[in-house]
Q: What sequence folds into this?
């Protein structure tokens, strides 16, 4: 079964996301901030991480930096935030995000479909890199 | 007598060089420092500029004394400043382009004392014993060197080379805009360092060739030009508006040259007053420009923050409404379904309005950015059309497309912005067409790709057409009950024009439908 780690401080959005992904057969783990999310990776070993950027404590950017620093971790991190500044988007991509989505653009099924598509793309790319290596 | 040669022989190019370089670096340092005093890069640049100014002046006075004692003093002072110039160059390279970078312990306990120690040696005859022989004004002096000159040379040379190597490493460490900043800085600094090393260092010290020493100040120009260009181009040190700075620089240079050319004490006094007045007013002008720029930046930050804060509850609202619509919380009646759809549509309208106002504010502040790439415009049109299909069906309008999918309609543009324009135009066509049809076509014509959106709707009066793309303009508010920001077409025009395209509208009048045309240049890349 696919597993998604959702790092989002808004409880309502956690609830909505949990509902949408569970409906698609995902096991959903939710965390309120970057630190708790980071600590959960080793234990939960998710297939994909959905990450908010603006959070108390360790924010999304710091989370990306932390995950980048660990060797051997190759989980797609999809940033889903309501920040639309190009600078911020570029920064998230530079820090290793697989994609950046504008939260308000995706509801319910749309978000799940998009995440599934991005994970598929990520895995294809990963396989190609492994083949080349 | 040849008049032109006499005029040119009277002009002191070395002096003008010093004046322009000093004023240039002074204004540049003023701009950088006035804008950001907390950043380590700004402080280091200021320090570098400060030493550069004194270095330029000392270089000029180096050959202005005929008394050997004074000449020796000038030479010692100049080499003293050369060492600190190299040190400040290294420090700037080391911290660039970061706002906060702590100088390591070895910098404080090894490099700084080394610069102090070496430059202090100039006070004793260890580096220069004396200036021998009689020399006349405007001739480069010939000093008697001692063993210490090697130490001074090695230290200065090492600081310069290390600075360049640090910058070069940073070129490989950085990405995107930051990399462009470092590249420009590296180019300017390496040119200056190269010229200085060759003409003011290797030739005079190694080969006793002093011919180029008087032009020392000119060698600072690459740093000035490349830094100014970087400020203009990539907002180096977060400064965008450099024109006030350039204006000040120009006025100050002219007034300083006038001061130098003064012929009487009265003229000197008057021109000193004029120079300082120009400098003070100029710096005030630069400062005011920054304050406006800062206020604009804050305004933009507030807009971004507000947009983010409003989007979050909207996302929640849409999320729960979708959950209910999908029947995830139990069966719902058609009436409730209808109401939920209205909630969603209104939510979408608010999201669009928010994005439009954010874009408008960015356009006004000159902060809008376009992320351009090659894409097939016909495909984008198809994507946008698919989002309107249900809406059109519900309204009983036929939404058709005439897009030749075999042919490619490639454009080099910001896809998201073009999508916004298409969405806006098609949405308008549907809104202003109570019944009938909306047709969208895409075609290639010469080097252009043209999208045509035609409807059988209410049409537009001829006298309304010229005002349609202005802010807060609406075709006819009284005739249809339509929610809108009134800036959709205004933004569409701005976006399309930013891509060197054109958007226009044709209508034969009321009740006779409307045709919107969006024209973009075809991508030059071969596909």
A:
């Amino acid at each position: 079964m696919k597993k998604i780690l959702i790092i989002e401080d808004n409880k309502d959005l956690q609830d909505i996301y949990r509902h949408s992904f569970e409906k698609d057969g995902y096991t959903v783990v939710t965390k309120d901030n970057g630190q708790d999310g980071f600590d959960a990776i080793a234990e939960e070993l998710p297939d994909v991480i959905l990450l908010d950027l603006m959070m108390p404590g360790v924010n999304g950017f710091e989370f990306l930096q932390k995950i980048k620093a660990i060797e051997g971790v190759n989980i797609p991190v999809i940033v889903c935030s309501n920040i639309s500044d190009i600078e911020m988007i570029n920064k998230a991509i530079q820090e290793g995000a697989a994609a950046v989505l504008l939260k308000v653009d995706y509801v319910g099924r749309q978000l799940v479909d998009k995440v599934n598509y991005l994970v598929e793309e990520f895995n294809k790319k990963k396989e190609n890199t492994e083949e080349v290596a | 007598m040849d008049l032109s040669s006499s005029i040119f022989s009277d002009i002191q190019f070395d002096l003008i060089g010093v004046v322009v370089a000093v004023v240039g670096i002074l204004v540049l340092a003023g701009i950088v420092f006035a804008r950001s005093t907390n950043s380590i890069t700004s402080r280091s640049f200021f320090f570098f500029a400060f030493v550069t100014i004194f270095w330029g002046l000392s270089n000029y006075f180096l050959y202005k004394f005929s008394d050997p004692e004074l000449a020796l003093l000038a030479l010692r002072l100049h080499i003293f400043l050369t060492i600190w110039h190299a040190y400040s160059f290294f420090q700037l390279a080391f911290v660039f382009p970061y706002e906060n970078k702590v100088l390591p312990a070895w910098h404080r306990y090894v490099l700084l004392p080394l610069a102090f120690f070496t430059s202090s040696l100039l006070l004793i005859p260890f580096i220069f014993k004396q200036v021998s022989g009689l020399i006349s004004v405007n001739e480069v002096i010939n000093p008697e060197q001692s063993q210490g000159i090697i130490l001074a040379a090695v230290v200065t040379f090492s600081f310069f080379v290390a600075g360049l190597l640090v910058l070069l490493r940073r070129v490989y460490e950085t990405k995107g805009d930051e990399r462009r900043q470092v590249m420009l800085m590296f180019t300017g600094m390496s040119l200056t360092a190269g010229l200085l090393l060759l003409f003011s260092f290797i030739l005079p010290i190694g080969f006793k060739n002093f011919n180029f020493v008087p032009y020392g100040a000119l060698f600072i120009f690459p740093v000035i030009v490349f830094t100014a260009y970087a400020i203009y181009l990539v907002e180096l040190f977060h400064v965008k508006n450099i024109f006030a700075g350039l204006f000040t620089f120009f006025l100050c240079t002219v007034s300083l040259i006038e001061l130098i050319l003064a012929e009487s004490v009265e003229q000197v006094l008057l021109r000193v007053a004029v120079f300082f007045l120009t400098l003070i007013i100029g710096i005030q002008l630069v400062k005011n420009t920054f304050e406006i720029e800062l206020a604009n930046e804050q305004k933009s930050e507030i807009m971004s923050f507000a947009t983010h804060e409003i989007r979050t509850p909207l996302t929640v609202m849409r999320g729960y409404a979708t959950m209910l619509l999908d029947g995830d919380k139990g069966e719902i009646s058609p009436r409730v379904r209808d109401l939920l759809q209205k909630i969603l549509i209104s939510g979408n309208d608010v999201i669009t309005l928010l994005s439009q106002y954010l874009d408008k504010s960015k356009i006004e502040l000159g902060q809008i950015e376009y992320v351009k790439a090659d894409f097939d415009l016909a495909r984008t049109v198809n994507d946008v059309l698919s989002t309107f299909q249900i809406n059109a069906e519900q309204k009983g309008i036929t939404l058709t497309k005439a897009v030749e999918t075999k042919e490619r309609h490639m454009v080099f543009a910001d896809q998201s912005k073009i999508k916004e324009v298409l969405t806006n135009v098609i949405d308008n066509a549907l809104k202003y067409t109570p019944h009938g049809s909306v047709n969208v076509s895409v075609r290639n014509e010469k080097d252009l790709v043209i999208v045509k959106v035609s409807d059988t709707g209410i049409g537009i009066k001829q006298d309304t057409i010229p005002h349609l793309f202005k802010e807060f303009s609406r075709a006819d508010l009284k005739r249809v009950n339509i929610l809108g920001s009134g800036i959709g077409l205004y933004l569409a025009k701005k976006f399309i024009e930013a891509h060197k395209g054109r958007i226009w509208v044709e209508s034969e009048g009321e009740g006779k439908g409307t045709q919107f045309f969006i024209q973009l240049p075809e991508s030059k890349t071969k596909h």
Q: What stands out?
A: Chain A has a mean pLDDT of 90. The first strand of chain A starts at residue 3 and ends at 7. Chain A touches chain B through 22 residues (CB under 8 Å).
